[in-house]
Every structure is written in C-alpha cells, then in structure tokens.
Amino acid sequence: MPDAPLTCLDFWCQAGSSSERPGEEGIAHFLEHMVFKGSGRLAAGAFDLAIEALGGSSNAATGFDDVHFHVLIPPDRAAEALDLLLELVLQPALEPQGFATERDVVLEEIAQYADQPTEQVLQSILSLGCGDHAYGRPILGTASALNAMDPSLMRRFHNRRYFGPNCTLALAGPAPETLKPAIAASALADLPGDRTNSSSHHPLRFHAGRHTQQIDRLESARILMLWLTAPAHNQEAVMGADLATTLLGEGRRSRLVERLREELQLVESISMDLTALEQGSLITLEVICPEDDLPAVEQEISAVLHQAANEAVSEQELRRGCQLVSNSLRYAMESVGHVSGLCASHVLWHRNQDLLNPLSHLSHWSADRLQSDLFPELLPEKACVLIARPGANQ
Question: Could you tell me the pTM of the whole model?
Fold first, then answer.
C-alpha cells in the first residue's frame, strides 16, 4: 500500500522449547515474556511506548525450535526501532521483582490452557507420540518447573542460546538508505561467536500405538492420529508430506473430507495438518464426531488411508493438490510479516534459498511415488492414535 508502507524487522533465535534442559521446561516462553519487562536502559513497558510513538507495533512468539520478536514500523523510523528491538532482546534486565510478577502471568496462562479440553486432547496426542522429547511437552512448561526457576537460571539460558550463529535478523518491506549502516553498527555486530555444547537436543523417538482417554467437559468425541515424518531440512520430503496431507484432508474434494463429511455425514469436522519441525515434522489428523459413531468413523478413516496406499491418485487429484500447496505458500507472502518470517526461518536453519524454491520439489512427487513412498507411511497402524471421549459427567 503506497500510502501506508510498513517495514518488518524480525529477530529470530534458535531458542525454542527444544533448547531447554531438564529443569528449564517452559523457560524459553517465560524468557519471551521477560524480554518485554525491560533492559538495562529501557524500563518495563518503555519499549512498547517507544514503538507506538514511532507509529509501529510489536509482537513475539515461542515455538518448539525457535523464538522470534518482530516490529512493524514505518520505513523512516526503522533504524530507531532496530536499536530498541536489539536492546530489548539482547540485554534483558531479568530483575527479580519483574521475574516474580511475570511468572504469575505465565502460571495463569498454563492454568487457562489446562482448563481447555480441546487443548488437553492435542497435548495428549503429542505427549503420547513424542514421549519425553521437547515436542511432546507443552511449550508453556509446567507450574512446578516455573516455580523452581530464578533469574540466574534464565540468564544462563539466554547466554547459552542468544549468540551469533543462533540468531538472524530479517527485514521485509521498504528499507531506507540509513538502515543498512544502522544494522552494521548495531548490537548484532557485538554478539559473541560460536559456543560449544550449547545444544541440548536428543533424538526424537516416535511411539506408535492406540490409546483411549476420557476428557472432562469435552463437547464431542475425537479421533486424533499423529505421524512422524521428515525433518524440515529435507525439503523434498516435507513438500511431499504437505502434498499428501492436502490430498487427504484439505477442502471438500479431499479424500477424507469427501468420504466422511460429504458422503456419509458421519463427522462434524476433519482437519489434517503438517507442522514442519527441525528434528522431525509432525502430521496430525483430528476428526470430531458423535461418540456413538466413533467405531464407524475409525473404520472409514482406515479404509481411505489404505486405499491411498494401494491405489495411485488420479492426475486430476494430483494437479489439484499441487495447486493448493502452491497457493498456500504464495498467499503466505501477502504481508511483510509473513515474508520476514519465512526469510528468517530459512536462514536461521541454513536453508538459504528463494522463498518459492520449496515449490520446485512438488514436481518430484508423481502419483506413483506418493503411493509407493509416502501414503504407506500414513496408515493407522503406523500412527499414534488417540480416541478421546467426553467424560462421564458430560
């Protein structure tokens, strides 16, 4: 929009929940909160006031693999915003009083999360499938772990993770001439180099199997299935998985939706999603249906998945799937925030490439290859399956 241009400054760090060590569960997300409590020269709340005064806004998010802090700002104020952002993220104060106050905020967030039955179900399938790996733990952590934390533990985590090779700054949108020298002279140049033994990753061991749970206050029964697939750096395999989940569960013409919702009208909703992660991506299928229909729904899901493994999809289906996957990536680049996020993620994890390059891998996935290499890995017997029923007091 020429009359209202925006520049996005997006700072990313390999400091998500998978970087946590025993006793640090939830510290990555807690640190995201503490960053906004001020730095050596910014009091609590001063950053937000300053960014708003410059005509911008800010936000942050913590994931399994990384955390990012971004600012949307008018281009002519980007250099000022950059200085504020780096001061906040790289020099957090972590003062004891603010630490105690913000811990209560996070503990309340954990309590609210635990009070939502639908969230409990999703966390259950991750815990069952991923075990004690970070991907099986809540990003928010646990109340017991948070209550045992102190500012010195958080400072050590920050020092261990927020260093040069672990960090990336992405810029999207108009860049004034003053911004490039400002970046070169910024605190980024002073970040320490490589540090040994900073990684705490351990292998992700997936646990297939079938489980049943009763969840209090769950409004409708659910069938959830979870599969482990290729890590994010294997772009060709990830794009194949994206294509497969699209063919099976995206849109009214996808196989699972068409069969279970449109033809048989057995289910309220179906969603199948791919989450690309650095230590192994996850595919989730969630089906909501009346409790009495659970056996019939599970049987039909199995039939559809086995058919995909035994019979190649049609060329028309394949073209439709490729188009949907392509459109999804292109639509994600309609805002500077999404563009900066894609750029940062690629660079942070050493996938320096054109933003549309992943689409080049779609041509490697023929109907025959999907049938032989991918759909057989998405059978119910290879999944972690959770049948969630409403509690007895429903």
Answer: 0.94
